Amino acid sequence: MSQPLQRNQTREHTNCDSRSNLLPTGRAVVFHTRVASTSVPRYLPACVAMLSRTEQERQQAFRFPQDQHLFAYAHALLRTSLSRFADIPPADWKFETGAHGRPELCRLQGEPTQLRFNLSHTRGFAACAITREADIGIDVERLDRNVDLHAIAERHFAPSEVDHLTTLAASARRRRFLEFWTLKEAYVKACGGGLTMSLRDFHFEPGHDGQWRIGFADPDRQADHWQFTCTQPTPHHIMSTAIHCRNQPEFAIHVEESAPVPSVPTRQDD
After folding, report:
1. Which of 92, 166, 171, 242 could anchor a disulfide with 137, C-beta 3.0 to 4.6 Å?
2. CATH fold for domain 12-257
3. Distance of CA 8 to CAs 95, 168, 230, Å?
4. pLDDT given at position 8
């Protein structure tokens, strides 16, 4: 039986950052890594050592080793990525549960500049996105994810998105479905609304210029000041980001393949 896609509600922010000049306003960075089942175990102890006791308990609660490895690898990637822009060792980042049940960084002493970031992972892949001051969301999925596209679209997509999917051939329909899904999840995570937000209340459409645009069922909602990307970082994965630019011009987005510990090779086969 195929498993339904799960709603992810993680968005985090912090006040501490004495290396903020490395991440100026108007710039976003995305760090991603492939998580190969054959090589991750040898790096697992170093990844687990970075996690808090609560995270380690969550990691051990997964039934299957591959899920334990993915959790540790992804959260270690997040911690080391954050430490690029703050004078805080990866293991010292502390989290708490915020509104709508999403994890957030504890407020720490430091300069008033804010880091905002988001994390997503799926089988074989993990990615995190970081900005200064702007809300950001990221979502990733496997292109071969075995789900009932029609049933999920009918339940969670806006009518215009469902209609659009019906016009596509089967091969194109799966990709467009995952584009819609990851864009929606990235937007919800950037908003911080979690499971309280209905995915049917807004829709996405690709523009002729290659840019993704959002629209709302409520005509009073403003679609301005949002920037979206949807890319394929590996042959097997799709990745979407959502940035609330507010009054800033279009963000420059830097995407980099990275690793949670220096000795981990950055290019691996799934």
Report:
1. 242
2. Ribosomal Protein L22; Chain A (3.90.470)
3. 17, 27, 17
4. 52
